Amino acid sequence: MINIEDFIISLADAFKNLSYFGIFLALCIEFVPAEVVLPLAGYWVSEGDMAFIGVVAAGSIGGVAGPLTLYWLGRYGGRPFLNKYGKYFFIKPESLDKSDAFFEKHGGLVAFSGRFIPGVRT
After folding, report:
1. What is the DSSP string of 5-36?
2. Under 8 Å CB-to-CB from 66, ≥6 apart: which residues?
3. Cβ(41)–Cβ(57) under 8 Å?
4. Side-chain-side CA neighbours of residue 14 (13 Å)
């Protein structure tokens, strides 16, 4: 059985080996919250392992590219895409209708508060 401490250390080493691309990827896909990646990257900058400007650039570009990609997928794919291919993602038309009704009623609050929940924000 793997020790959680060893897993975290190996994950951090993997990001460090990927360097700036690892920071970009983590913030773009957001499989690890930015609240974890950026302090770790800051530590590497303080140790001289990475350049400050490189970390800022990779983090900024990754933090914008991921949500922007998802926005464009939703904007230009949207409901027609989900109606056609949703069955492959286990999404039923009834679920889409319920989601639409929920967002019509609570959309602003959900969008605002969802930005504070890691994994949901993107």
Report:
1. HHHHHHHHHHHHHHHHHHHHHHHHH-SS-HHH
2. 27, 28, 29, 30, 122
3. no
4. 9
Q: Which residue has the higher pLDDT, 87 or 30?
A: 87
119 pLDDT more than 70? no
CB 82 within 8 A of CB 47: no
Cβ atoms of 23 and 55 closer than 8 Å: yes
**Six-digit token pair at 58?**
């990779």
Other Cβ atoms within 10 Å of 22 Cβ, number: 20
Number of C-beta neighbours around residue 82 at 10 A = 17
Span 31-45, average pLDDT: 87
Write down the domain spans for the chain. Answer: 1-76, 79-122
Alpha helices in 30-92 (DSSP H): 34-46, 52-76, 78-85
pTM: 0.71
Q: Please report which confidence band the pLDDT of residue 54 belongs to, taking 50, 70 and 90 as the band edges.
A: very high
